[in-house]
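FW: tagging you since you asked about this chain on Friday. Here's the raw sequence from the shared folder, copied in full. Didn't touch anything.
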Amino acid sequence: MTEHSAGNGAVAGEPGDRSSVDDRPFLELRNVTRVFGHGKKAVTAVDNVSLTLRHKEIVTIVGESGSGKSTLARLVLRLLNPTSGTISLDGKDVTKLRGAALKPYWREVQAVFQDPFASFNQFFTVRRVLTRSLGLLANVVERKAETLMRESLEHVGLSPDDVLDKWPHQLSGGQRQRVMIARALMMRPRILVADEATSMLDASLRANILNVLSDLRRDYQMTILFITHDIGQACYISDRVLVMSKGVVVEEGPTDDVIFNPKNEYTQRLLADVPKLHAV
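HL: got it, structure written out here
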């Protein structure tokens, strides 16, 4: 992978090492469709999409608002049920799991969303936010919970003593997003879905969050599904890119192929909006 400009504030650097990716698929979506509404008012948000995630891989779904990328993220997270198609983890079909049966899946697949402030209960301190999230883990004693919280906060570049007893409004946007990443990290998931996780941050913080995500792949052997409207960020962080438009994947492939040899006109238009995207 060559070095690239990250676009919109991310700095050039080394993306993940593609050679470290394990080519065995372990999460697969096959011909997944999601329709909202019925009859003449029906809207197909995701249309017959197939997606494979491999161990230690960073895959980016990129597209404009309304392209279906966030709906696809929620299908992967099993926060939405597909209208048709299947979702499997380690070869096991999880499409029809509901309620408590999804807890083991959610330990494996965690999320960081767009608005870190909305992700907090405003009446909880950081300590309580993190402690409550441990409900997905069985038999976590108080001492181990404290260790998990501190290790996870430190890994995303926050001092536990500085943030654990603070309220959400006392943190910056970048700090709140790092706390949300730490909350997900405490589960030690195999997959992290980052849905527009940098879009509400100013340009100076975006590269920092992208670097945190890359570190998680390296240090925890984590797979990351990164959702963004910014193809420059996709270039910076990804092994593979899928481009979505109107619910359909219009182009996909290794990052360099998609970025420097785009075949679809929609992809070409997205790239035209990135002023400094170039190979070094």
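FW: The two ends are 11 Å apart (CA to CA).
HL: agreed, and DSSP finds ten helices and ten strands in the chain.
FW: great, closing this out.
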